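Lab notes, practical 5.
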Amino acid sequence: MKTEKEKMIAGELYRPTDEHLVNERHAARVLFQEFNASNEEQKVKRVKLLQNLFQSTPENLYIEPPFYCDYGYNIRLGKNVFVNYNCCILDVSTVSIGDNAMFGPNVQIYTATHPLAYKLRNSGVEYAKPIVIGDNVWIGGHSVICPGVTIGNNVVIGAGSVVTKDFPDDVCIAGNPARIIKSIDNN
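Output from the prediction step:
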């Protein structure tokens, strides 16, 4: 029989009130709250807190506080990632972020979702879908990336966009829901 965490990671219905998951979310919250309370002069401390939160050492990672997430360990970061103020990543499932990604302020990334049928939704179960963000992606401020989305390499996402579906490499997208505005010539 699978644990609630195993079901969560597999994208199956699970109970977020499971004691182990509640404790893991609390541990992540302690780390990001300490990170958010730190200042520029505490660079070594900030790096250590992020290493503990993400359970990895991304090269040239810069996150501007405040930052929020559910677990941290489901976030995979490439090198040279810049995250501006007030980013929230609901990493119930995996969030893979490629090299040279740039996030504007208030970017929201949601892997968590809920059943559409109200009786099942009201039962307290939920599930998640992974998100993949390619290399060299620039996400404009106040954009939302919805569960299950894959964004190709070299994509620019206009400010305030709501990304509800997959997009290929080398495009500029914008809107609610986001759509391709134009192709980008990266030759």
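Observations recorded by the TA: The first helix runs from residue 4 to 10. The mean pLDDT is 96.
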